[in-house]
Amino acid sequence: MTDPQVRSQIRTLPAEVLPLLSDAMGVLELTPWNGRPYNEADPDGWMRQLDFAGGRGFITYLVLDDQERVDVLNLTWLG
Questions:
Q1: Separation CA 18–CA 3 (nearest Å)
Q2: Which helix (H) or strand (E) holds 73?
Q3: How many of the other CB atoms lie within 10 Å of CB of 50?
Q4: Backbone angle region of 65, left / alpha / beta, with phi > 0 → left and psi within -120 to 50 → alpha
Q5: What is the DSSP letter of 78?
Q6: Rounded to an integer, what distance in angstroms lies between the CA atom of residue 47 and that of residue 40?
Q7: If DSSP codes are grouped into helix, strand and coil, which group holds residue 1?
Q8: Residues 6+ apart with CB under 8 A from 8
């Protein structure tokens, strides 16, 4: 699931970034726990962050195992 704010962030990305984002979203779908903890003090926390495009982008998301769902909360593109 993607927050409406994130959909707006995606619309502002350069077209060449979209395939890289798509690949990263595929990783989230298959292995959401592979992202690093959002809060290093809580390494087992449900809130995670996945880098993409060589560290130029970050996806912040929440893993909801009990619902078999990943919610994307924020997308940061440093370009």
A1: 17
A2: strand 69-77
A3: 20
A4: alpha
A5: -
A6: 10
A7: coil
A8: none
Contact 32, 49 (CB under 8 A): no
Residues 51-72, buried b or exposed e (16+ Cβ, 10 A)? ebbeeebbbbbbbeeeeeebbb
pLDDT, tens digit only, all 79 positions of the chain = 667 889 999 999 999 999 999 999 999 999 999 999 999 999 999 999 999 999 999 999 999 999 999 999 999 999 7
| pTM: predicted TM-score of the whole model, two decimal places | 0.90
Amino acid, res. 7: R
